[in-house]
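User: Hey, my collaborator sent me this sequence without any context and asked if I could get a structure. I don't really work with proteins. Can you help?
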Amino acid sequence: MSNGRVQLTVENGIAAILIDRPEARNAMTWAMYEELGRICEELAGRSDVRVATFRGAGLEAFVAGTDIEQFKTFDSGADGIAYEQTIDLRIGQIERLPMPTVAIVDGWAIGGGLAISAACDFRIATPTASFGVPIARTLGNCLSMANTARVVAAFGVARAKRMLLLAELLSAQEALECGFLTAVADAASIDAAARELCAKLSKLAPVTQRVSKEAIRRMVAETVPQGDDLVAACYGSRDFRIGVSAFLDKQKPAWTGS
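Assistant: No problem. I've predicted the 3D structure and written it out in structure-token form, which is a compact way to encode the shape of the chain:
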């Protein structure tokens, strides 16, 4: 299985970022996160780009989180803190892009995929898309405080608890109803819907857009408390090691609460 790629193309002022590892449902490797960071750094300095879109390759998934194989080397809570800090850095780069961003979601947006889509300003999806962070059922880890805050800001406290405590996935219809999605379009028309949204965004005042999205980001992101103790407790737990092993062995984890 490949390490995957994150690719950038720019045409007529629209940047298209493709997360390209369809054989693994676009699960992110460390190398892909680094590529994503480099692309965001480049886009942050480009005045010719009016809108940036993010999309996963293939039709099965937008991004199905981080590649779990990479967690096998974790042996302490400190590893979890370092990992979540890296994810916060990459997701923060998306969130801080000066131009409007649009996530085009086919299939699953799970874990890190949900975080990437939530960091975008707008999201459109196919009717079969689903959104969630089912780590209470799968791995026994947790989100950083920043990503938890993004989930709460996007979905509200009640839905955030369903996603994080009950490990529920939300349908595209529910995501539309709660305002997380801007639109739902079938597979045959989602490209046209994305083009229409990008065209509308690219005609509006870029300074106003840049300043307004940064103001909103500061209101949400800069009030987030420190939570390394919580991250260390999860990633340093026996249950996390059990969850990773069970996931890779395709078994159901037997949680211990320790």
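In plain terms: The first helix runs from residue 30 to 44. You can pass these tokens on to your collaborator as they are.
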